[in-house]
Specification:
3 helices, 40% strand
Length: 205
């Protein structure tokens, strides 16, 4: 099976917790910004569902700013890594590598929230008062896509919030949802976690 970056971790079916509701009275993002700036690292298990309903799972490692790793379940020959500069999809089945500047991905707001969240984010109405949903989109750069992050209020978590998952939509309207579980904040994450082995054959000079 051939995989593409848009069809996997970077592109939504809206999470049930972010269902439409009457408009909220505030667009205040201060609690979300405070939460994200208080989280330097995060680890979690994830379940990823594409627009056709196909689901895969794996382990997520995040280290701000600019680093993330999606390590997929056995049998899915993919690795997605952001190393602070570029977002890279490595497909070990077909020995291909695709790279994008992080700023061109919907994940930019998640990886560097201080830069884009307050400027381009807006609160999205939710049916549950314990759920906070934030959509981030640069209207001048629609090709960068949209990410809608869903947080759940939780006492004791940084800023009183926990990231429950997100929905991303790329410029071609490819949608993917990510749901997180077992989230842990500010634990040690080695920088080596954001390296990867290149599967492409070495060219001889």
């Amino acid at each position: 099976m051939k995989y593409t970056l848009a069809a996997l971790a970077l592109s939504p079916v809206l999470l049930a917790t972010s269902a439409a509701a009457p408009a909220q009275s505030t667009n205040d993002l201060s609690a979300v910004v405070a939460h994200m700036q208080a989280v330097s690292t995060m680890t979690a298990s994830f379940t990823q569902t594409d627009r056709s309903g196909k689901a895969v799972s794996g382990k997520l490692l995040l280290k701000r700013p600019g680093h993330i790793r999606f390590e997929y379940q056995k049998g899915v020959p993919l690795l997605i890594v952001a190393d602070g500069k570029a977002l890279t999809l490595i497909d070990y089945e077909v020995k291909q590598v695709q790279r994008w500047p992080i700023k061109n991905s919907p994940l930019a707001a998640l990886l560097d929230p201080g830069k884009d969240l307050a400027r381009f984010g807006k609160r999205v109405a939710t049916a549950d008062p314990n759920v906070v949903s934030v959509e981030v989109r640069d209207p001048k750069r629609p090709e960068y896509g949209t990410i809608t992050m869903v947080f759940v209020k939780q006492a004791g978590a940084p800023g009183g919030l926990t990231l429950n998952g997100w929905v991303s939509l790329d410029s071609k309207n490819n949608r993917t949802s990510i749901r997180l579980s077992g989230v842990k904040f500010n634990t040690a994450v080695a920088q080596s976690a954001f390296t990867w082995k290149d599967p492409r054959p070495t060219r001889r000079k």
